[in-house]
Amino acid sequence: MAEQPKSSLWLFDSRLRALRFCYRLASGAISSRRFGPSARGAFVKRRDLMRKGSSLLTVCVTVFFIIVISAAVLAFIFGIYYLGMAGLFQLLGIGYDSVQALALFVLLFLLLGIFVELFVKVFNTLLLPAVASRLLQKILEFCIRYTFTLPVVFLLNHYMSTIHIKLMSQAALAAFVVVIEMLIDNEDYSQKG
Length: 193
Hints:
The protein is mainly α. It has helices at about 10-25, 35-90, 100-125, 135-160, 165-185; strands at about 95, 165. InterPro entries: YrvL.
């Protein structure tokens, strides 16, 4: 006797019953002793995976907020540098064509300053602990920082046609920037121990 094909309604109904059974087994409404520990364990793992999915959302939100906070901190630092440079430019009589030119100068100064700071830290760490006097340490630190900052100002003035800095103003600008960085940094390089 040939079997008759089952209707799709019967198939849907059986799947629905299986899903209800799985839900009740996973939620503890049905005792898992009847089906063995492995049946309940499989459903618990599935439920734990759903919790991991929600933790993925938590991780995404956390990463998003870390990026937003980091961007806000970087924007704040850029703003401080921008306003500081605008004030120094006004004080030293340095001319610039537009506000965008000043912003580009500050951005490039910060980017080049990151690389310069690496060399400054190396020289400061190697040379300054050998100096006994705190005053001499600060003078040597100023000289090291100034030696690396002045070429950055010179190169930016040379390659940016929208910024017009005289040679004496370049030296004064580099000196002001170095003094401000030293006041903010204020590290003690004397040997301990």
